[in-house]
Amino acid sequence: MAIDFTLAPEHEEIRRRVRAFVQDVIVPAKTEGLTREEYLRTIFGLRERAKAEGLWLPHMPVEVGGMGLGHVALAMVQSEAAKTRLGPWVLNCQAPDEGNMHTLLHWATEEQKEKYLRPLLEGRAMSCFAMTEPEVAGSDPTLIRTTAVQDGDEWVVNGHKWFISNARRASFAILIARTEPDVPEGQRGATTAFLVDIPSPGWTDVREVETMHGSTGHSEIVIEDLRLPESRILGGRGNGHRLGQYRLGPARLAHCMRWISQAETALDMMVDRALNRYSHGSLLADKQGVQWLIADSAMELYQCKLMVLHAASKIDKGDDFRTEVSMAKHFVANALNRIVDRAIQVHGALGYSTDTPLASMFQHARWARFADGADEIHQMRIAERTIAAYRDTGSTRAATGGLPL
After folding, report:
1. What is the C-alpha to C-alpha distance for residues 202 and 194, in angstroms, rounded to an integer?
2. For residue 210, is it within any domain?
3. Which residues, including other chains, have CB under 8 Å from residue 91's CB and lie 6 or more apart?
4. pLDDT recorded at residue 366
5. Domain Acyl-CoA dehydrogenase/oxidase N-terminal spans what residues (predicted)?
6. What is the pLDDT of residue 55?
């Protein structure tokens, strides 16, 4: 069996182009201290340059204007783009729009694609995914309480959502609501996805929820008697859970791709600091305690990359990738937290300050351990699949990647 981690020449060339574009075009762009009008003009100018360079929509098929990359090649592009905060947005492969594009491409009718997908593809609109609620555990979408009740040719929606990323900037939402009251709580098949124009009567953005890193676009939404026509159902009645899970699988891995880039940046900073900081008779790089921090981080980053590449290859081959993506999501999120934390430690008080990006990176990294599924939920699913594999075959091999070892 051949195991080859090299990219095809054309994909290696794409990676080089993305890296050069990020370093030569995005990084030098001045975005600090600008008025909102100047900032938007700068950002949209960068997007036009990305389109001209053929670096637009790396996650979408060629027939809808994308680069047509598989998930292995996409991992390279996402990790390069995420070297800077603006990178994924400039290439139009940022969350939550990226996952919503996949969802619309797979589930939407032709009319829905024209109205909602096309503006996303062209960079003329932004979107959000409204599922999480304050009254029930966000890790269990079968408990959703937002209801949609049929009234003639319309549906009347009432409910409460929060931590809806990008809602304040979105022109539409994919909303998950309970439509099947006869399905017992905790069972699948009770919810339906709807497309909601923003703004709409009955959709109220109450506030942006303040988080560890400030108010940055996670909205609390109150929905009161929001009326939607039947044509706004996305993916068929009762398919809300299936649609959500379809969306979250590849989206989780895309997060991992971007987190790897952040972890690699933190490790680079850690080593650079160790090579340039002199204390107690030697450089930090010569001290065993610091070497262990570097070694642990390098080993974990290696594991992260292997897990993401393997999970991506399974998606590309059409194999069942759920266990591998769960493992990658859990491990990469935790490794990111540990690596950034070590980088802060090596930088000392400087790392704790805002003079370097590490403090901000650490605040954002903490979110990774519950976004798109908390650590404990992924551990539970991994354990369930491992037990099931042993019951079915007498071996756990299938639950540990199905690799030839």
Report:
1. 14
2. yes
3. 18, 50, 55, 56, 57, 58, 77, 81
4. 95
5. 9-123
6. 96
Range of the domain at 86: 9-94
* 16 and 50, same domain (yes or no): yes
pLDDT the model gives residue 185? 78
Q: Say which residues have a Cβ less than 8 Å from residue 198's Cβ, sequence separation at least 6.
A: 128, 167, 170, 171, 172, 173
For position 3, what pLDDT does the model report? 67
pTM, 2 dp:
0.91
Beta-strand relationship, 127-130 and 154-165: unpaired
pLDDT of residue 219: 95
All residue ranges of the chain with pLDDT < 50 are none
- Residue 308's contacts (CB-CB under 8 Å, 6 or more residues apart) are 75, 253, 256, 257, 260, 328, 332
pLDDT for the residue 1: 54
Same domain, 56 and 169: no
- The total number of residues written for the chain in this structure: 405
Dist. CA 166–CA 208, nearest whole Å: 10
Q: What is the pLDDT, as a whole number, of residue 129?
A: 96
Among residues 207, 250, 258, which one has the least CA distance to residue 367? 258
- Residue 186 shares a structural domain with residue 141: yes
Give CA–CA dist 341/346, Å, rounded. Answer: 9
Say yes or no: 293 and 359 in one domain: yes
Q: Name residue, tokens 């369930």.
A: 384
Q: Which of 110, 91, 102 is nearest to 21 (CA)?
A: 91
Q: So what's the pLDDT on residue 248?
A: 81
DSSP state letter for 369: T
Torsion angle defined by CA atoms of residues 360, 254, 331 and 345, in that order, rounded to the nearest 10 degrees: -20
